[in-house]
Write a structure and sequence with these properties.
This protein is 20% helix and 45% strand.
Length: 130
């Protein structure tokens, strides 16, 4: 009976060690963090406007932005396409064309595809058309 208990304890310790290693590897992955949660622009109807979203890599591994997209063709993004090291900042420039848009407020989702396990990260750009 003592041998079985020792064997079970040994297996439990081995499993815990493997779990800890897996957690450490996961924690080293890149992590995109937006520096501002309040992304707001005001644009005159018919005009174009640009807004810059800043982000930072909080993970150990390099962060790579694979793509930035939106649900509307009126919004176009340019972004940092080089690897972003731990603690470094990157930029996403959003161009918005208000042509044929109604006066009012639009909440435009900006979807950022990265190389982390949380592959897609969303920012909301609030646009007030006057």
């Amino acid at each position: 009976m003592k041998k079985i208990i020792k064997l079970l304890l040994l297996i439990l310790v081995a499993l815990k060690a493997n779990f800890s290693i897996a957690q450490t590897k996961k924690n080293n992955e890149p992590m995109l963090s937006f520096l501002s949660k309040n992304n707001f622009i005001e644009v005159k109807r018919g005009d174009k406007s640009t807004y810059t979203i800043e982000f930072k890599n909080l993970g150990v591994d390099d962060l790579i932005i694979k793509d930035v997209s939106s649900t509307c063709l009126c919004t176009v993004a340019k972004y940092t396409n080089k690897p972003i090291k731990l603690g470094q900042k990157g930029l996403i420039d959003i161009s918005f064309d208000s042509k044929n848009k109604p006066i009012g407020t639009i909440k435009q989702p900006i979807i950022v595809e990265t190389n982390s396990s949380k592959r897609y990260v969303k920012a909301i750009l609030t646009i007030k058309i006057v």
